[in-house]
């Protein structure tokens, strides 16, 4: 049985457990599957002593369900759609939208291309066409400098949507929050890098 399969047996009630318990379970999953220490180069070009590959969790069946439930609960009440820059945000946006249907609070999903589609409509935004002024929240897996989510914000605003909030799974606390504040955007995160480091240290101590 591999590591991902072992995680499935840890909690059989991801769909129904309370959100506080679910948040702790997701933190544990992120530390076990996504958080790695070593020498890495980030997409921003920065050197880092750790790396967070959230796709190990966002593409995990129970991880995706947990993320969908937790982030849906963080959305402003008037949110009609969630969106994010491909590729990191794709499974997150989809998870939130699917969970919203189950909770009778339907939220549309939009995916923002990095480059315009090379054929057909040549669109930057994939998903249902919504009316101008529709409130859209941008979702992100890991925020470092904040540039990726800002690309999504600008594309959505150019399309006429109202974007005032960004929500991330993990904030590395390396300038992203400050960038969003300077742009007049509200920023919320499920976890900070300090949360992951502290939880990882506890796990390592417990194994000794």
Automatic annotation (TrEMBL):
Protein name per Swiss-Prot or TrEMBL: Orotate phosphoribosyltransferase
E.C. numbers: 2.4.2.10
Pathway terms, separated by semicolons: Pyrimidine metabolism; UMP biosynthesis via de novo pathway; UMP from orotate: step 1/2
SUPFAM superfamilies assigned to the protein according to its UniProt record, in alphabetical order: PRTase-like
TM region positions: none
Family affiliation: Belongs to the purine/pyrimidine phosphoribosyltransferase family. PyrE subfamily.
NCBIfam families xref list: pyrE
Function per UniProt: Catalyzes the transfer of a ribosyl phosphate group from 5-phosphoribose 1-diphosphate to orotate, leading to the formation of orotidine monophosphate (OMP).
Requisite cofactors: Mg(2+)
Gene Ontology terms describing biological process: 'de novo' UMP biosynthetic process; pyrimidine nucleobase biosynthetic process
HAMAP family in the record: PyrE (MF_01208)
Origin: domain of life: Bacteria
Known catalytic reactions: orotidine 5'-phosphate + diphosphate = orotate + 5-phospho-alpha-D-ribose 1-diphosphate
CDD domains documented for this protein: PRTases_typeI
UniProt source species: Planktothrix tepida PCC 9214
Lineage: Bacteria, Bacillati, Cyanobacteriota, Cyanophyceae, Oscillatoriophycideae
Record InterPro entries: OPRT, Or_phspho_trans_dom, PRTase-like, PRTase_dom
Record gene name: pyrE
């Amino acid at each position: 049985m591999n590591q991902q399969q072992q995680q499935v047996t840890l909690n059989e009630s991801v769909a129904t457990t309370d959100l506080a318990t679910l948040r702790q379970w997701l933190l544990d999953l992120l530390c076990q599957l996504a958080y790695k220490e070593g020498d890495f180069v980030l997409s921003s070009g920065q050197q880092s002593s750790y790396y967070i590959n959230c796709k190990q969790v966002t593409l995990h069946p129970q991880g995706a369900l947990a993320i969908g439930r937790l982030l849906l609960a963080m959305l402003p009440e008037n949110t009609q759609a969630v969106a994010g820059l491909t590729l990191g945000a794709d499974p997150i946006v989809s998870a939130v939208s699917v969970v919203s249907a189950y909770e009778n609070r339907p939220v549309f999903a939009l995916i923002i291309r990095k480059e315009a589609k090379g054929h057909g409509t040549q669109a930057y935004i994939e998903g249902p066409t919504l009316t101008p002024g529709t409130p859209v929240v941008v979702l992100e897996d890991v925020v470092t400098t904040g540039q990726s989510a800002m690309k999504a914000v600008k594309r959505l605003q150019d399309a006429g949507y109202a974007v005032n909030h960004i929500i991330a799974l993990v904030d590395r606390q390396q300038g992203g929050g400050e960038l969003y504040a300077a742009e007049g955007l509200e920023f919320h995160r499920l976890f900070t890098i300090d949360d992951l480091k502290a939880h990882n240290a506890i796990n390592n101590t417990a194994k000794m």
